Amino acid sequence: MPISVLKFGGTSLSDSWKREQAVSCVKRELELENQVIIVVSAIGRIGAPYSTDTLLSLAEPLSIPPHQRSLLLSCGEIISAAIFSSALHHAGVECEILTGKQAGLKTDNVYDADICSMNTHSVFTELQQTDVIIIPGFQGEDQYGRVATLGRGGSDTSACAIAASVSALYCKLYTDVAGIMSGDPRIVDQAKIVQSLSYDEAFHIAHQGAKVIHPKAVEWARKGNIPVWTGDLSDDGGTWIGLHPRTESVHSVTAIDHLVQIAVQAQDCDAIFRMLAEKNISIDLISIQPIEVKFTIHQDDYPELKRTLDEQHIYFKSRHHVSKVALIGTRIAGRPGVASSIVSLLTKSNINIWQTADSHMTFWVLVDHADSEHAQQLLHQFFINPEPATVQE
User: Fold this and answer.
1) CA pair distance 86, 327, nearest whole angstrom
2) What family does this belong to (predicted)?
3) Quick one: which of 300, 308, 307, 306 has its CA closest to 278?
4) Can you tell me the distance from the alpha carbon of 328 to that of 194, in angstroms, rounded to the nearest whole number?
């Protein structure tokens, strides 16, 4: 039988009414004569009794060994799986639960890990006995057989990895938003649902700050050529990823805040980059000139960067409270009118642009954090909701 994978986020299972809606989603798949693998997140968000953040708050993170921290955090998804199993059985849907370890998710580490391989033998064995399996997301097994937990977006990644490994028809990610939006609806009044995206487009949107899906989940879906849908429990609308190619040129504006721009006067850029890599400081938006290199870091990494460069007597300048705003679309690089329109649009509104960069699908501008929301609104209005279209093709 065909297999579909459904992932329910923590807010999608947070009360009995939402769990009933989730049960209806499972029943629709069974009516289509699909076997169903369900991946669940821990119920609720911080403050809820079994959310990941709440569980972590029960122990001092720095005093508990990583493998014990993972064991603690994995409990949230296991509780969620058991509660949703109860809802399914109450509705007459028989199911079985396999932990991430039992389902064959192998990881490269015990905490904040990545999935490195999948062994689906137990999954297929169980599917011979039942048409519905629940697998707690966000967890797997490290090389020593210990319970491991994944990083941010771990349940999405679990779902897409499982879908790719069992050659599922598709993977549906249920969340509390109606799909991937063209902009942050809290900032952009006319933000709309993007109906379809390629894997590359979805990866760029996720990587540039959108929280609806994690880039690692998109990578697994692309690896298995699995169509992914994300939306809410109404099962209407939503966004399909990898199902149909897009034709629109520009379709999303996103932003990453809490950044610091660093400018280092140095000719040996490689030495600077190696030095920071050894300190696990991630850098982005890199601009290399003959005697200077500019890049951005997260503000949390600034103390370690300052300490590292000061120890080496390397002079640098820093610009704090900046945000990276990204315009994402097909054929962005080299498209006539894009760069000049962005610069003109922002400078006319007295928004300083401290740095720019582009790729084949993304154009970035670095602006002051105080201007980030206004920049997103301007770019969204001009490129996605134009009065008439004003960019030359």
Assistant:
1) 44
2) Belongs to the aspartokinase family.
3) 308
4) 12
- Describe the crossing of helices 154-165 and 215-224 by its angle, rounded to 10 degrees: 0
Amino acid identity at 113: A
Position 4 pLDDT exceeds 60 = yes
Give residue 390's pLDDT.
Answer: 42
Higher model confidence: residue 93 or residue 198?
93
List, for residues 233-274, the tens digit of each pLDDT value.
998 889 999 976 555 566 789 999 999 999 998 767 888 999
Four-residue CA torsion sign, 313, 314, 317, 322: negative
DSSP characters over 243-272: SS----SEEEEEEEEEEEEEEE--S-HHHH
* Pair of tokens at residue 300: 């949390």
Q: Which string of DSSP letters, residue by residue, matches 216-250?
A: HHHHHHHHHT--EEEE-TT-SS-EEESSS----SE
Specify the residue for token string 């199993």: 85
pLDDT score of 368: 98
Neighbours of 339 (CB within 10 A): 16
Q: Output the CA torsion 204→214→144→10 (10° steps).
A: 180
Better-predicted residue by pLDDT, 136 or 57: 136
Complete edge-to-edge strand list for the sheet that includes strand 105-107 = 115-118, 105-107, 139-141, 147-149
321: phi then psi, degrees, rounded to nearest 5: 60, 55
The total number of residues written for the chain in this structure: 393
**Stretch 301-310: mean pLDDT:** 96
What does the H/E/C string look like for 311-329?
Answer: HCCCCEEEEEEEEEEEEEE
